[in-house]
Queue: 2 jobs
Job 1
Amino acid sequence: MIPDMGPHAAFIWMSYAIMTGVLAALIAWLILDGRKQSRLLAALEARSAKRSDK
Amino acid sequence: MQTQTITQKLANPTFFMNLSAKILPWLSSFAAILIIYGLTLGFATPPDYQQGQTVKIMFIHVPAAWLSMMAYGLIAVSSFGLLVFRHPLADVSAKAAAPIGAVFTLIALVTGSLWGKPTWGTYWQWDARMTSVLILFFLYLGLMALRSSIEEESLASKLTAVLALTGIVILPVIKFSVNWWNTLHQPAGVLKGGLDPVFLKPLLFSAVGFSLLFFALHMKGMRNEIIRRRVKARQLKEVDRAARAHGVEA
C-alpha cells in the first residue's frame, strides 16, 4: 500500500525517484564497463594464445 | 619465507581481484537488504511535528551527504598512499572513487534542494553549507576532468593526487560551516541525540546500507580499472611487437 505523503508528496517522490535513477545509472555504467573491459582482455589473451600456438 | 601483511597482500592486484570477486556479491546483497529495510522502516514513520512527511527525504539525503564527504576522504587517503607509499592500488582506488563520490554529492544536492523548498520555502540559497557542498561536487568533476585530460597515466595520477590533497580543505569547511556561519541549513544533530529514535533507527539502517553500497560500487570500479590497465598493458605490448616485426621486415 502506498502511504499518504501529504501536501508535499511530489517533493518526496521526486527525491526518491532521482536517487533511484542516478544510482541505477551508476550501477549500470559500472556493470557495462566491467563487461566491456573483460571482453577486451579476453580477446587480447585469445589472440596472444593463438600466436604462441603457432 | 617471510609472511606478507594484509596491506602487502592487498597491494597485489591479482590477490585483490580474487578476494573482491568473492566479497562483491555478498557485499552488494547485504547493502541492498539494509537499504530496503531502512527505507521501508522510514516510510512507516509518522510525520514529523515540524516537517511533516518531508522528513522522509532525510533517509536518503543524510546518507548521501555523509558519503559525499567520506568518498572524498577516501580519495585523499588513496592519493596520500600513492604519493608517499607508492601503493600499487592507491591510484586505482582514487580513480574509482571519484565518479561514485560525485554521484552521491549530486544526490545530496538535489534531495537537499527538494527538501528545502517545502521546509525553508526555497530550493537554493548561497549559504555556507550548500555552497561548500556544491564546491565539493565541482572538485569531483575537476579531479575527473584533470585525469582524463592527461594522456600519460603516471603523470595524470600524480597531478590528480596533488589536487585531491589540496582540495581536502573543503571537508572541515562543509562539516563546520553550520557552526562557523549563520546558515539556513540546520546544525548536525543526528549523532548528538537530536533525533527521535523513531527516525534514528531507519536512518542508521539506511546509512549503513548506503555505505556498504558505496564500498561495493568502489570495489567494482577498482576491478574495472585493474582490468582496463591490463588491457592497456597488453595493447601496448602488441603495438611494440608489431613495431619490432615491422622493423625486422623493413
Job 2
Amino acid sequence: MSVKDQVIAIIAEQALLEPQDVTLDSTLESLGIDSMGVVESIFAIEEAFDITVPFNANAPQESDFDITSVATIIAGIERLRAQQATG
Amino acid sequence: MKRVVITGAGTINPLGHSVADTFAAMREGVCGIGPLDIRDVDRLQIQIGGQVKGFEAEGRYNRQQISLYDRFTQFTLAAAREAIEQSGLIFEGELAARSGVVLGTAGGGVSTWDDNYRAVYEEGKNRVHPFVVPKLMNNAAASHVSMEWNLKGPSFTVSTACASSNHAMAQAFMMIRSGMAPAMVTGGSESMLCFGGVKAWEGLRVMSKDACRPFSANRNGMVQGEGAGIFVFEEYEHARARGAEILCEVAGFAMSSDASDIVMPSKNGAARAMAGALKDAGLNASDVGYINAHGTGTAANDKTECAAVADVFGPHADNLMISSTKSMHGHLIGGTGAVELLACIMALRDGVIAPTIGYEEPDPECALDVVPNEARDAKVDVALSNAFAFGGMNAVIALRKT
C-alpha cells in the first residue's frame, strides 16, 4: 500500500468514514476529527511508518508537521521518513 | 455548622522540603523545573519535570519501611510530620477515635508499578517482592499516616486526577464542619516521575519540552512535578480552646462535574465550582483578592479558566490577582491542589502573592492580572484555590484570613 493509501486508511478509520470519502484536499476538521482524534491519528501514523512526529497539541500550528490537510500530512510523513531512515 | 481552620501545614515539593522553604522559593520566583534525572530518560520525548531533589529514603526510613513506602508515601509521611508537629495535636483517646486522614492521589505508587513491571516484563523475572500490593495501593499513604499518628476516625483516599487533593480536602472540611470529626489530616501526594509515568503523559501531546508558562501567549504545555502537601484541619473552637496557632480558615468549597468531555475543560463547569465555593462560604465575589489558578500552561486550560473567572467575577475579575505556581513546581497531578493551597495561605498570612513565572507574552484570551514573574505584596482577605481535573471533575476551596 502506498503512503497515501495508508494515511487515508488511518484517517478514514479515525473519522468513521470509508477511504473513498477521504481526499487529498480533505482537512481533518472537515472530516469531523477533533483534537483527541488528531492525537490518535498521529499516533497511528507513527506506528504505521515507524517515525516520530513532532507534534504538540497546544500549538499545532507551530509543530514542525503540517496537519492542514491529508496532502500536507502525506508530505510531512515522506519528509520524516527520509530524515529518520538513517537515524 | 462548625467553623474549620488550618492549624498545621507541611510539604515536600520541587521548591522545598518544608513550608518555610517553599514560601521563600515562591517569594523569590524560583523555578523548580529542570532536566529529569530518571532511568531511561533518553527514551523520553519529554525530559523535564519538577523533581524533588535531595530527598533520599535511605537514612530517612529504615529498610522495612522502605519496602512498604512508595515514594508518594515517603513524601506524604514527611509532609504530615511537619504539619502535625506544627499543629501540636497529639492524637489519643476520643480525639484519636474521631479524627482521620483523607488524602488525594491520582496514581498512587506509580514507581512501584513501573519497577515491578520492568522486573517481570523486561528482565523476565517470575517473582516480585511480597509487599508490592500494599506499597502501590492508592490508600497506602493515608494508611501509613493513620498508623504513624494513631488516627482512628474516617480515613480514605480520593482519586480525581488533577483535582484529587482538593476533593480530599473538601471531604475533610465537610467532616469537621458537620461535627463528625474534631480534626482531620488531609492533602495529597503524587510521584509519577518515572519512565512509565512520564511516557503515559507524553502520549497525550500536551506536554512542554522546555517550560511551564501559564497564561503566556507562547505557552506550549504542562510540565509534571512531584511532591506532597499535608494539612491539619481542625474545628475552630477546638483549636481556640487549646490556644493553637491558626493559619487561616477554610471558609467553603464546591465541586462540579462538567459531564461533557474526558479531557477538554469546560468554562461552565469551572465557573460553577468557583461560584459554588463563594456561595458555600457566604462570600461575595468582590471579597476575593487572590485565586491560585489551576493554570496548567496548556492552551485549553488557561483560556477556559480565565473565561470562567471573568464570568464569575464580572468587573471584579480585573481587580483580583490570579497566579499559577505550576510555573515553579510543575503539575503535581493528584498532589497539586495541596501544594498550591500553600500559595493561598502565604497570600492570606504573609500578604505575599506567589508569581506566575516564565510569563513572556500577554495573551488576549488570558487578560487578567496573573502576577507575572515577580511576587507581589498585597493585603488579601479571601483566596480561592482552583483544581479542574481530566474527566471534568472540579473542586474549588475558599480560604479566609482569621
